[in-house]
Write a structure and sequence with these properties.
With 193 residues, the chain is mainly β. It has a domain of 35 residues. It has one helix and eleven strands; from the N terminus they run βββαββββββββ. The strands form three sheets. Strands 4-5-1-9-6 form a five-stranded antiparallel beta sheet, with helices on one face.
């Protein structure tokens, strides 16, 4: 645990006595699950060949949720990053970190199957019909994940409007300071999404 002494900051996280960072890496892109990875909801029937589904945030019992449930069996999830579609991963900050341990290379769990997950159709199919927004079942063990300890070392990417990490909102200047548009909340500024 880091300490803050006489107002001086030291690297670390101040939210809880013991925290750890874990990277969940999936074996494939959760935004591009196809007919080989899914079934029609509640069946063992494959959707049509043109169907594409996502099993990330905003989907009840998604692959991400199932992986987080595994982490929660031995630790408290304090924060979760957005899904990284480049390396198919999510970063998680855990409290009560002694619940998990790894090998010397940081590997906690390898090729764990995602079970009982659901996905939402993002590209519909024809026969059998799968409409955009409908739910599918992710096939057992079609998606697997690894858990690895990660470091909080200053190499995190800078959040910008262009990379989707920021959104515009009020408050870059106080409302009592005249701004170009004379808005009551001042000149707009950017905030994390």
């Amino acid at each position: 645990m880091t300490t803050k002494i006489n107002g001086a900051a030291y690297p670390g996280v101040w939210v809880e006595k013991k925290v750890a960072f874990v990277k969940i890496t999936f074996n494939q892109d959760l935004l591009a699950l196809d007919e080989n990875d899914t079934y029609l909801l509640g069946t063992t029937t494959a959707p049509s060949a043109t169907t594409v589904a996502a099993s990330v945030f905003g989907v009840v019992e998604s692959a991400v949720v199932q992986a987080l449930k595994t982490l929660e069996t031995r630790a408290t999830v304090l924060a979760v990053s957005t899904y990284n579609a480049t390396d198919f991963s999510v970063d998680v900050m855990l409290g009560n970190a002694e619940g998990w341990f790894s090998d010397a290379n940081g590997l906690i769990l390898n090729d764990a199957p995602v079970l009982n997950a659901q996905a939402i159709v993002t590209t519909g199919g024809v026969t059998p019909t799968t409409t955009v927004g409908s739910l599918l079942t992710v096939r057992p063990s079609a998606v697997t994940f690894d858990l690895e300890f990660a470091t909080f070392d200053g190499a995190m990417a800078v959040g910008t409007l262009a990379n989707g990490a920021l959104a515009i909102g009020p408050g870059a200047t106080p409302g009592n300071i005249p701004s170009p548009g004379n808005t009551p909340t001042g000149t707009p500024g950017y905030y994390p999404v």
